[in-house]
Design goal:
about 260 residues; mainly alpha; 434 Repressor (Amino-terminal Domain); 2 domains; two-stranded parallel sheet; two-stranded antiparallel ribbon
Length: about 260
């Protein structure tokens, strides 16, 4: 991950809201010159750690992303090698502390749709018998579709097809995370659409919908984002990969702006 991707994705988020939003306007909002911002995004220059802290605050990055963003800047700079190594180690340590496997953007791109991750998750169930027909039956697919998915997962070293078919690697995993990308957006869109369909097609005893409309202090958005992320990850940690598990469920939470913010008088 390059810290420039975080900046670039934030710029694209604003452009989706306002197609006329320019790089010059973005530079103004980040309190940096347009030429300097262009050089940074083109990898012709680096940010200082102090500037990274300022930009993280202006972008309202959540606390965890802010730490990674600053360390990514420090790790890619021209500073002392020991300082750069320490920054890289901090990023790795935070990732290991989660004790969860994040499905990477490259993996999501190869897997192409939600069924791939769902099948892999299904294969982690203790009662899974290792049979392709079982997968086909539970997901209402034909065996050819299942074979295609399994070959794709094998390329990613997520399943073993030698002998009994089974999932391998850390079976506590999630898709998405702090850094947005086209692959993550596609995956979230698919899961959100499935959630909408479930509201209409599944009995209330099998699904749960929760919605809220609230006012917030926009400066607290990063804290809220982090709490939502922590909730999702803790759910995976607490309930996934248990001996009695027998079902695969999906979760999609969306916290989004409904109206243009009001400025305080």
């Amino acid at each position: 991950m390059d810290y420039r991707e975080i900046i670039s994705d934030k710029f694209e988020e604003r452009r989706r809201v306002n197609a006329r939003y320019s790089l010059r306007a973005f530079a103004r909002d980040l309190k940096i010159s347009p030429s300097r911002l262009s050089d940074v995004l083109a990898s012709k220059g680096n940010l200082s750690v102090d500037k990274a802290r300022q930009i993280a605050k202006l972008l309202t990055l959540n606390p965890l992303v802010t730490k990674d963003f600053i360390d990514l800047v420090e790790a890619s700079g021209r500073g002392v090698e020991s300082v750069k190594s320490a920054a890289k180690k901090r990023i790795q340590t935070r990732s290991k502390t989660e004790n969860l496997r994040r499905i990477s953007d490259d993996e999501l791109s190869i897997m192409s749709d939600w069924r791939n991750l769902a099948v892999w998750t299904f294969m982690t169930l203790p009662a899974f018998d290792g049979q392709r027909n079982t997968i086909a039956k539970h997901f209402k697919m034909n065996v050819i579709e299942v074979e295609d998915i399994l070959r794709r997962l094998e390329r990613l070293k997520m399943v073993s097809l030698n002998g009994k078919t089974g999932a391998i690697g850390n079976t506590q995993a999630y898709a998405g995370g702090s850094f947005p990308s086209p692959e993550v957006r596609v995956f979230h869109r698919q899961i959100s659409e499935l959630g909408r369909e479930a509201i209409e097609s599944q009995a209330y005893t099998e699904r749960h919908a929760e919605s809220a409309i609230l006012t917030i202090d926009k400066s607290k958005y990063g804290e809220i984002e982090q709490k939502i992320a922590n909730f999702c990850r803790s759910l995976v940690k607490d309930y996934s990969d248990q001996p009695a598990n027998n079902s695969v469920y999906g979760l999609s939470l969306t916290f989004f702006k409904l109206a243009v913010p009001l400025h305080s008088p």
